[in-house]
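Example 3.2
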Amino acid sequence: MAISFKPVKLQGKRGCLLYFWGRMYTLKKSLGQHFLKDETICRRIIALLEEEPFRNLLEVGPGGGALTKYLIALPEIDFKAVELDHEKVVYLSERYPVLANKIIEGSILDIKPPFPDHFTVIGNFPYNISTQILFRVIEWRDQVDRVIGMFQKEVAVRIAAGPGNKDYGILSVLLQAYFKVDYRLDVDEDCFNPPPKVKSGVVSLLNTHNPYGIKDYRKLHILVKAAFGQRRKQLRNPLKPYFSAAELTDPLFTRRAEQLSVEEYVALIPRMS
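Structure, written as tokens:
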């Protein structure tokens, strides 16, 4: 069922007012709210979600419920949503009574894992905190089996980029150390209300359960962050504080940050001084 909306001019800088199902609420620019309105895209995202089995599902930033209405119709799942905007929490609770006690009012950056065991994450992530959300997912890597996320296309491409690519960076390495990352879907600006100024992309992250046997994520993070902090220089420069002079004679350190694979970064961890 399509959601109808009618934008109304609002005096001031908070955003525009929309009518959804006869109720009026505000789209808040300060929260990066660009709500999905294209039902075809919604259904394609749900189809991506259903490619892998899951029992527990967390939606991040349900907003006006474009995806939520499909998610709550999925059989035999335990569904929860986390939403920071109180106005949207009230709207969703009234529009979908089945959501009683299933909406966590707050930020995903502040809450504890919403399930005691494994779960899947889905969402049209607020673009202004999408990178922080991904670092949160890494923190929860022992519980998050899969993520289906909508991102600004630039971020989505960066997440999925491989070594040797100009878009390959810190997020690429840290996520791909634990997840199989696939760029799945382009989404145009006019699929949202209000339309963002950038294109979007949907990415799938499938937990690969630490295939590289990483024992110290903190060291990996330090190493990768330092390497890409001076990505145009040979690695012996930015990584000098973390390796002995003898280690730095290895030809590997004459390469640049974007030229090392995830496996090569992980292999460097035991060699750090």
